[in-house]
Design brief:
27% helix, two-stranded antiparallel sheet, 6-stranded mixed beta sheet, alpha+beta, 6 helices, single chain, Glutaredoxin
Length: 227
């Protein structure tokens, strides 16, 4: 590919014109973030239990003393020995962020429906350090719309698409001073793009994600130790 070649004055004019659109997009994103923060909450009443490196953990334990909790729902079927390569791509963006999130009253955890030992082995292989717990012995994944027995109906992404087995997602929870927990937000499908910094870097380049000529969008992707 080769775009139009222009002089510096024209290049700056074109760039400034595009900058106005970028500013408008940024302002609209700020508005959407404010609207997201003002959405109604849903009480979480189930006593979910998880297997963690510290032993059995309640949902409240995952907050690690913070009021807010961000969960990445990582696709990892109980029959798999390796995690989903797409979720692994996302998870490569997570290392080191938790220390910064904690300064804004936010805890971060990854949750999957597989045995804790399998998760720990895969985490060591991938070189990740973020908290990861197992929801294998609870209904947590099903209740949060990321595990499905059948795809006979539109069951994923708030009933807008169908999925069978394990699916990815993000959920946000809040815990008040009395220990009550509320679900404030969940997103799935393309809503997950916001957590993949690598894709946003690609979007800055002329070729972008460069996936249009592939059999499917992420055909090029491998786990970080498989390229």
């Amino acid at each position: 590919m080769k775009n139009q070649i222009v002089d510096k004055k024209t290049w700056i004019e074109k760039r400034k014109a595009h900058l106005e659109k970028e500013k408008a997009f940024t302002l609209r994103r700020d508005e959407l973030s404010a609207e997201r923060g003002a959405l109604p909450w849903l009480a979480v009443e189930e006593d979910y239990r998880f297997s963690s490196a510290q032993g059995e953990s309640t949902l409240g334990d995952l907050f690690q003393g913070k009021r807010q909790l961000i969960i990445y729902h990582f696709m990892f079927d109980p029959e798999w020995e390796a995690g989903c390569k797409s979720c692994s791509f996302w998870a490569d963006n997570f290392n080191g962020i938790d220390v910064h999130l904690q300064q804004r009253d936010i805890a971060f955890v990854v949750i999957s429906r597989n045995a804790l030992k399998v998760l720990e082995n895969y985490q060591a292989r991938m070189g990740w350090s973020f908290p990861w717990v197992s929801s294998l012995n609870s209904n947590f994944n099903y209740d949060f719309g990321v595990s499905f027995e059948s795809s006979s109906a539109e069951n994923y992404n708030f009933g807008t698409s169908s999925f069978k087995g394990e699916a990815p997602g993000i959920s946000v929870l809040y815990k008040d001073d009395e220990g009550n927990i509320f679900r404030t937000y969940s997103t799935y499908s393309r809503g997950l793009d916001m957590l993949n910094g690598a894709y946003h870097f690609m979007d800055l380049t002329p070729k972008g994600r460069d996936e249009s000529n592939l059999d499917y969008a992420m055909e090029w992707l491998r786990r970080n130790d498989e390229y």
